[in-house]
Amino acid sequence: MLASRTIEVSAVFVSLAVVTVFMSAVLLVSAGAKSLRTRHITEQMATLGVPRGMMAFLIGAQVAGAAGVLAGLWWGPVGIAAAIGLTLYFAGAVASHLRVGDHKGAPPAVVLTMASIALIALRAATL
Asked: Does the keyword Heme apply (predicted)?
């Protein structure tokens, strides 16, 4: 019985690690693109009505989220807190895209919102 539970927890932790690495990579690539102020990013932010002064905050939130979910692999409460923050961040992104009728930009934000929720559930299951 104990061996079965150990294998089950290990499988959940492996899933957590995979989603964590995926999310961290996506967040760091996105933060990098925002920091480079590529045409695509600046046009998208303008369409969404995001002020230029807010870019540094968004970059910081993404880097902090990546660091938080990675640290959460070692200390669960930090990972859960970071994943909650990312869920709110991406839910806000979904709302921003839908508010301006950007139906092409909303689905990726929905996927990342769901991945953030998965991180909460997976980390909570391994505590």
From this structure: no
Which residues are CB-neighbours of 90 under 8 A, at least 6 positions away? 109, 110, 112, 113, 116
Phi, psi of 37 (to 5 degrees): 55, 50
Region of residue 50 (left: phi > 0; alpha: psi -120 to 50; beta: else): beta
Amino acid sitting at position 69: V
Rounded Cα gap, residues 93 and 41, in angstroms: 13
Boundaries of every domain in the chain:
2-125
> How distant, in Å, are the alpha carbons of 55, 85, 94, 96 from that of 101?
21, 24, 11, 9
DSSP assignment of 57-80, as one string? HHHHHHHHHHHHHHHTTTSHHHHH
